[in-house]
Structures are given as structure tokens and as C-alpha cells.
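Notes from the 1:1 (GR / supervisor)

We went over the backlog. Supervisor wanted to see one worked example end to end before approving the batch request, so GR pasted a single chain during the call. The sequence is below; no edits were made to it. Supervisor asked that the structure be written out right there so they could see what the output format looks like.
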Amino acid sequence: MNNLTGLIEKYFVPMAGKLSKNKFLKAISNGFSVLLPITMIGAIFTLLANLQIAPYQSFVKAVHLKEIFGFAPKVTTDMLAVYAVFLIGKALAEQFDFDDNVSTIVGALSLFSFLVLIPLGVSGKAEKSQEIVSIAGAMPTTYLGAAGLFTAMIVGLLVPFIYQIFIKYNIVLKMPEQVPPTIAKSFSALIPAFSIAFIFGLIRFLFSLTPFGDANSFVYTMMKAPLANLGASPATFILFILVGSLMWFFGLHGGMIVMPFINVLYTAAGLENLEAYANGVAGPNLITNASWLIFASVGGAGGTLGLCIIMAFMAKSSRYKTLGKLALPAGACGINEPITFGLPMVLNTIMIIPLIITPITTFLISYFMMRIGIIPPLNGTTIPLGTPVVFAGLIAGGWKTAVLQIVLIAVQMIIYLPFFKVLDKQAVLEEKGTA
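Structure output shown during the call:
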């Protein structure tokens, strides 16, 4: 164990530390964090509109609530790429140390560039005549939602990168000192902005000459299948769990390190499930971004809610019994820093085994239950950190998922119990002064 710990500490931890400080990954993570209220609005209104209870459906249809609930998803989850490209672009500009005013300008340029890549023109069948009608001046919405997320992330990272090159080499319009700073900053953005506009206009034109027709179709075609296959594999998700747990063991925030990758791989999958739920069918994806909190990290990283319960009600030492009672309310809301740093889990060689195998086990149980159809796939709702366990399961998957979370807590207790007994026994001896 010591040799393995030494190897991880020597090679793996420094690499993970660099990843956690990577500006581009932090921009994706921060952008999606700010995006959470928008995704929650769309998801909750979708749930309210489509909750499959016959009397409820009759009521919401009769009073037109179903129609009212349907407005929000059309401009939130169905247009998520629009919000994402602005917020990621702004977040990366902040990573480049631009002030709030300039980072907002960069975010707006990112949105502009994303929209430039979408060719105008839509067509469809007329309702009565069934003839094909084309509207040249309309913007298609296909890539404004989940299908455009990959392009949104690329553009949201590329535009600030280009912008900061102009700033770095001072390729800007310089205004006299008498000009107010806000006006001066706006004018200084003109050369980078015009250049970015030309670059993305050129990209749009060049893609129009290819069989793909536009950049979004190219990105979606080239990235959708590989990333979908990678994300659909439980092995990929298990790897993220493993990395997250190891980082927490060494005192690094494992969630911050793996969450950008979780967002890239599984946000679109969650939106696809949410769309399927709105259409009254089962979600096509067994793994979504919500799988992290609902199945793998029940009670926080390492799946420690079961450990909190053991400590609060089964510990013999005063130290761990008190810590368990203090940590239990936070653990029930998915926050486990009191356990991570209070037990501690950090550099605790006894607890590293359950810290790793517990979330992997609970995830695999959940994945198997969905695979054989005992519980449905998650409905795509993004669950914010702090949502109480069981209630989170009820929102994300229904009553079966909520019940499964209770079962998973029991599994956590079974795994953690023998390892905790070793610590508890040592603590009792220390309290008696016989250790």
C-alpha cells in the first residue's frame, strides 16, 4: 500500500494538480456552474409539465398550466448552447485576468461567433397544403440546444484565446486619457472583435464548401459518436470516480478535477434524456451528469453518508460519535467536507479502500438496475449540490430512484463498517489513555 501511495503521490497527484489549475478546464467548469439555474429552470418546468399522473395531467391541461410550463424549456434546455458559449467565453476571459467589463465583451463575442457559424434558412411542410416552404431569413434551432453544446464549448474557449493574443501583443485601438475607461475599453475591443468576426465568417464560408455544410454539423458528426460511445461505457465513469476519490485522499478537490470532463461527456446525454421524458418515453442514456450525485456520490465524494450514519449511531468513541452527529446533516445534503477533513479521509491509509470501492459499487449497482429495467434511466434533471438525498433521487428519477438511494446508503454502511471499526477501536484506546 505504501509503495502504491508513493507512486500515486509522485506521478499522479502533480498531473491532477496541473489539470485542476488548467484555465480551459476551469472555464468549462465555471461556465457550467453559472449555467445551473438555467438548466434547473428548464428541467423543473419539464417535470411539472410531464409528470405522469393521470389526474394531475388532466388538471394542468384543463387550466392551461401544461402550456405555460412548456414555455420555459423552449428557451432554456432547448437553447442551452446559447447560454453555454457566452458563460464559458466569459469564464475563460476571467481566467486570463480580464476585468468584468472586458470578460463580458469577450463572452458576447463568443456568442456572436457561435451564431455566425449557423447558416440562416429553414424549411418544412405547410400544415394544410403539405408543400415544402422555405424561409431564408430564419435561424434553425437544431444546434442551439444539446446538439450544439460541443461547438459552444469549442467557440467559448477559442474566442477568448484569440482575444487575449491581441491584448498580449497590444494590437488594439488606443484612446486618449481623457476618454472614460469604459468607453476606452469598448474601443480597444474593436480590432480584436473585427478580427474574430472575420475569422469565424471565414470558417463558416469554408465549411459551406464541404459536404458537412456548416461547422456545427461537422463538430456534431465528428465528436458525437466517439464521445457518446466513451460516455456510455461504465468503465469511463468508473475511471472518473477513481480519479475523484484518489484526489480527495491526497487533499485535492476531486470534484473540481473531474467535473469539467463530466460536463463535456454527459451534459448532452442528460438533455437527451430530458427531451425523451418530455415526450413520454424512456431516456436513451443510462449515464448522465446527474449520475455523479445520485448514484456515485450519495452523501458526497466517496459515498460517505453511510459512514456518517455509522459514526453517529454506532461509534463507541466520543470523538467519532460527535463528529458523526455534526457531519450527518451536511452529508444528507451531499456535502462531506466535515468527514473528509474531520475524520480525516485525507491520507488515511485505512479508509482509502472504502473511499474508492464504495462509490464504484453504488454506481455499478445502479447501472445494473437500470440495465435490467428495474429502475428507469435518470430523466436528465441537473441536481445542484446541496439537494437532500432521496429528495434528489425523487426529482432525478422518480420514487424508484429515491428508494434505490436508501438501498445504496445501506450498501455504503456495509462497506465502511469493518474499516471504521478499526479506527473507532483505536480512538477508544486513545480516549482511555491506553493506546
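Supervisor's comment: The longest helix spans residues 399-432.
Batch request approved.
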